[in-house]
């Protein structure tokens, strides 16, 4: 084992001590709770609230692999435990290796699949136009159970704890047991829904084609409140910070109060007028809500509805494909007649980072996990964008007796020539000590890097220290994160 000696730097107020380290140490694997890592994209919209924000590095404009299903793919992928699950118009649902694109299994239903799969508890839940919601073994693809509705299912399931919620074209929303396909309750409306239900805590948000939005109790399907807009809702809603976001075909985008007024109603917080109908679902992150109309892509202040930026496609039509966000970048697609276009914009200002033309129409939406992005096309293929290089990602910075940094390689190849720079600013005294650091980090491997400190920085008599960590390797990406902390002698408290 290679040792590195880190020499102390004594600093008073406003000083900085920088430690650059390299070498080897023992590593450990991060725990994966219930067989699912934090970077999973386990259902349509990423999570039950449909925020569409990935816990992943951003995929680059580099095609890693493609897999052809022989028929149209409008289903959006789910990515769990390095497997991709997606449906096709050839009646089949596929499980592919997320890294290589190799087929692991497929299962044939009775009709085409436009529904996006959801994966939880090692079960794949997917709807088919034959009217069934299928329960399949996520590892083997074997049939477990199914639930028959009275019309086709083109919508996508939402899985929360022990319940599965799915809408059918029979104008009902069903709540099923996640293990047995037993019906727990159903909610009947006057017309169908085209979106997936969104869930937070004990509330289910269900939007239907006539412009009505219902908030239902997840335990029994009873109405908590309902609200009617002036036109049809084509997509799913997103939930964030006690607010509900969605667009309509009458050129209005709405923000409603999630909690309600206590009398069976809720309040409209704001609405925003756009250039044309809205058919895509929104994404929400860090006070921004993003969505597409026909020709424009909007970023609004999620609190006030004020415009932050607008991206103009120059008359390239945007359709039902919904945005996905990863690492400060937003991805969305255009059907563009017979030539689909993939866009990647900077989330902060809407500047175009890149765009890529494909060979056919795209109406599906991105799923992002493990530094890779996945999208289906009318040409029958599922495409994976990513890199074969190592991708180092700082997963966590924590305190205690040491500053502990958790670094993960989310790339496809081993990271070598690793450099880790830890900078402390603000009245810290760093004592000399030996540390062991990694020479290499294997794909999907996580390592801890620890550093002891001593000094005082409480933000009262001395500045509160800022800890900045940068990781790099000889070939691959760099990641940097900063955290404020309080330091009292050898104890470090990281600010939340």
Description:
- The protein has 496 residues and is mainly beta.
- It has 2 domains: 132 residues, Immunoglobulins (Immunoglobulin-like); 346 residues, YVTN repeat-like/Quinoprotein amine dehydrogenase (Methylamine Dehydrogenase, Chain H), CATH 2.130.10.10.
- 0% of the residues lie in helices and 47% in strands.
- It contains no helices and 46 strands.
- The chain is globular and about 65 Å long.
- The relative contact order is 0.15.
Name the CATH homologous superfamily of the largest domain. YVTN repeat-like/Quinoprotein amine dehydrogenase
CATH architecture of the largest domain: 7 Propeller
Question: What does the average pLDDT come to?
Answer: 86
Principal-axes geometry comes out as: globular
Characteristics:
496 residues, mainly beta, Immunoglobulin-like, Methylamine Dehydrogenase, Chain H, 2 domains, 4-stranded antiparallel beta sheet, 0% helix
Helices, strands, pairings?
Layout: E1 4-6, E2 16-21, E3 63-68, E4 78-80, E5 83-87, E6 92-97, E7 103-108, E8 118-120, E9 123-127, E10 132-137, E11 143-148, E12 158-160, E13 163-168, E14 172-177, E15 183-188, E16 198-200, E17 203-207, E18 212-217, E19 223-228, E20 238-240, E21 243-247, E22 252-257, E23 268-273, E24 283-285, E25 288-292, E26 296-301, E27 307-312, E28 324-326, E29 329-334, E30 341-346, E31 352-357, E32 367-369, E33 372-376, E34 381-385, E35 392-398, E36 403-409, E37 415-416, E38 419-425, E39 428-429, E40 433-435, E41 440-441, E42 446-451, E43 454-457, E44 466-472, E45 479-489, E46 491-494
Antiparallel strand pairs: 1-40, 2-38, 3-34, 4-5, 5-6, 6-7, 8-9, 9-10, 10-11, 12-13, 13-14, 14-15, 16-17, 17-18, 18-19, 20-21, 21-22, 22-23, 24-25, 25-26, 26-27, 28-29, 29-30, 30-31, 32-33, 33-34, 35-36, 36-42, 37-41, 38-44, 39-43, 43-45, 44-45, 45-46
């Amino acid at each position: 084992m290679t040792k590195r000696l880190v020499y102390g730097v004594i600093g008073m107020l406003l000083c900085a001590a920088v430690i650059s380290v390299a070498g080897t140490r023992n590593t450990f694997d991060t725990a994966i709770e219930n067989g699912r890592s934090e970077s999973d994209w386990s259902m349509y919209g990423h999570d039950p609230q449909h925020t569409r924000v990935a816990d992943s590095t951003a995929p680059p404009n580099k095609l890693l692999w493609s897999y052809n299903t022989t028929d149209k793919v409008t289903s959006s992928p789910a990515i769990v435990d390095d497997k991709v699950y997606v449906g096709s118009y050839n009646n089949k649902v596929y499980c592919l290796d997320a890294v290589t694109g190799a087929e692991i299994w497929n299962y044939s239903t009775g009709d085409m699949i436009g529904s996006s799969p959801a994966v939880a508890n090692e079960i794949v839940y997917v709807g088919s136009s034959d009217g069934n919601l299928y329960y399949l073994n996520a590892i083997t693809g074997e049939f477990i159970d199914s639930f028959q509705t009275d019309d086709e299912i083109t919508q996508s399931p939402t899985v929360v704890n022990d319940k599965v919620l799915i809408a059918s074209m029979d104008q009902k929303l069903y709540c099923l047991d996640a293990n047995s396909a037993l019906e727990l309750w159903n909610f009947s409306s006057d017309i169908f829904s085209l979106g997936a239900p969104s869930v937070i805590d004990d509330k289910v948000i269900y939007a239907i084609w006539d412009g009505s939005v219902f908030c239902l109790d997840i335990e029994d399907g009873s109405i908590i409140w309902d609200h009617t807009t002036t036109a049809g809702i084509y997509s799913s809603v997103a939930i964030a910070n006690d607010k509900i976001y969605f667009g309509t075909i009458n050129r209005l985008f709405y923000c409603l109060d999630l909690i309600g007024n206590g009398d069976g109603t809720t309040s409209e917080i704001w609405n925003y007028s756009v250039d044309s109908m809205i058919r895509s679902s929104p994404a929400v992150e860090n006070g921004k809500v993003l969505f597409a109309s026909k020709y424009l892509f909007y970023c609004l202040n999620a609190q006030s509805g004020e415009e932050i930026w607008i991206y103009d496609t120059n008359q390239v039509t945007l359709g039902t494909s919904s945005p996905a966000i990863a690492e400060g970048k937003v991805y969305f697609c255009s059907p563009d007649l017979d030539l689909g276009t993939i866009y990647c914009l900077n989330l902060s200002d809407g500047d175009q980072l890149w765009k890529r033309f494909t060979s056919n129409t795209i109406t599906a939406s991105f799923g992002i996990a493990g530094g890779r992005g996945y999208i289906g096309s009318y040409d029958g293929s599922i495409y994976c964008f990513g890199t074969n290089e190592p991708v180092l990602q700082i997963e966590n910075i924590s305190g205690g007796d040491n500053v502990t940094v958790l670094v993960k390689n989310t790339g496809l190849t081993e990271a070598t020539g690793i450099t880790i720079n830890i900078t402390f600013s603000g009245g810290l005294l760093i004592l000399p000590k030996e540390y062991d650091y990694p020479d290499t980090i294997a794909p999907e491997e996580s390592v801890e890097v620890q550093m002891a400190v001593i000094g005082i920085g409480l933000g009262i008599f001395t500045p509160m220290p800022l800890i900045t960590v940068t990781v790099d390797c000889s070939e691959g990406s760099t990641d940097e994160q900063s955290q404020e902390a309080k330091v009292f002698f050898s104890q470090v408290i990281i600010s939340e």
